[in-house]
Specification:
- This protein is 49% helix and 16% strand.
- By secondary structure, the chain is an alpha/beta fold.
- The strands form 5 sheets. The protein has a 7-stranded parallel β-sheet, with helices on both faces.
- Strand 1 and strand 2 form a beta hairpin.
Amino acid sequence: MTVYNGKLIKNQLDLYIYQFNFESFLAVLEDTPAKIEIQGIDYDCEIISVNGQQVQIALKETLGNSIPTAKIKINTWYLLEILKKKYEESLSDNKKFKNGYKLFSGNFAKIDGGNFHPSYSTSEKNTIPNESQHRAILSSINDFLSIIWGPPGTGKTLTIAKAIESHLNLGRKVLLLSHANNAVDQALEKVAVQTKDSYYKNCKLVRLGIPKTQRLEKIASNYPLVLIDKIVEYKSKELIQRKSQLISNLEKLKLRIKDYESVIGLWNEIQKYDKIIEEHTNTFNKDKTTYQNLQRIGFELKARIQNEYLKLNKAKQAGTLKQILFGLNPQKILNTIQEYQSKLKTLDQQINGLKNSLDNIKRSIDQNLEIRKKTFSNLKSKLSGEKNNKEVLNKIKDLNESLKSIALQIDEIDKQIDRLKINVISEANLVATTLVKSYTSKEIENIEFDVIVVDEVSMAPLPMLFWTASKAKKGITIVGDFNQLPPICVTKEEIGKKWLKRSIFNVLNLDSVAKANSDKIKLLNIQYRMNPLISEIPRKKIYNEQLRDYEETKSKVIYDNISESAPICLIDTSPHNPWCSQLEKGRFNLINALICVSLAEKLVKKYQQDNEVSIGIITPYRNQARLIFKIAEDKNLLNSNNLRINDFVYFLSFLKG
């Protein structure tokens, strides 16, 4: 799948988190391993979250601050293949899946005979469970299988947190799971607040995996001691300080080695200059001898020429008979003079050439001598008593040995820290992670838990849920709403639909309001989120009047420039002739999309400084969601933290109620 406009939005926990936009549909569970291809190179990554037309991924290396385009490669069957392999490896263990069978058959036996009482903190304002929440908590700590039915806004997260705290106070080790990181973190945060002076303070609450970016920032600021790296940092201050000192020493050694290596380089430079100077000196001496010989020959030629001129004068003064008797032929003497002069001219040219060459060689020797002098001065400043190249090489050898020793010490500290990470998880009273991590993470592969709590269980794939149940020794609490989204399923095969499209509510035959009216399910029946005029719709149409409104929800109204103070505002678009089209088996409506984005833009501007207000644009059609997303992108609205665009078939949205 091609993704666009990638931005580095966070660097934390030794990970680089990027956010991309995409236009197609991405059906993938959070914490799924994947690959991202950038300019033809594949990098391992992990899907943190998918929100509308945006996806967040985590990498172990930085790829720059922005990535214009990339391809995310996901094998949708990869996670099931891992799970299949784990099942195959466990076929010989007859007892491993006994609790999975008990879960899927609806076994409501008591934990250790039951009769346990909830024990949770009530110091925080508005955190005392109501009667239905208390019944759910009571079931969670006493029943092997506890089913908590939590419609939207009924306090599922609070109930989960109080139930977990009660389990912890009973000395039980708990594994908190959900298909989504956000649900895990919300419950974990509440447990951290409730137990800030006990389990949290003692580093007994551990988050395994990568929270969504906004949650990660909040957790790192307010509840850092649930993050493994922060816990390890807190528990291994001396080790980390020792490692920091060793790293500092390591860097100093590297600099010293670099200095000594530069000494070797300077020594080599000096030897190079010595060789050049020697070669130039030899050439100079050789050419100087030649120069002197040529000068001597020149002197001899000049003397001969002078003698010939004397002979020529004598010949000119002598008569013909005397010239014949004494061999004084003027023309012949003149020819000899010209011959000697020609030789002398050539010789002078050679002498001048050699003189220039000697001057150049002398300058080169002087220059190299000067460079050598400076190099030697630089060399002397770097030496610490070493007398020659061999002593420096020995020093480098000794320093490299020290370097190896420090590197081994750092490696040992890293191993101790890694062992500490494992100990942190194994000694934790609560581990919070996703369903995917529950069987892909090696950190909890061999750890058993007394109790498993699964939130948003309606979306939990059955094979994963069955495997997770094998890790529970005493009980399993499942929390969710069968009226909300089922598991993500893209297969068309019947066997695939049977095990991947159905939820645990379908398996237990508790998938409707009529069937759920039994003691098997603990309904959270008071909703705290919506104004009664909003909640009336799901209360009457979906939940058969089984929900009640908390008294304060009547005041959950805010004023805006569209609906004023009305909790519900219906907008008739028919005067604009909002024709509908279909593309690739999906509907879209341009007029309605433009109106939706226009209304959202007004609200974004009004509440852009208020992070407590969230604005959702929801449509049942995927193509409509894409169209709205593109229009919002063109209007630069996607940079707002307030606005979210999605294509859920069923969604209850609220603006402060």
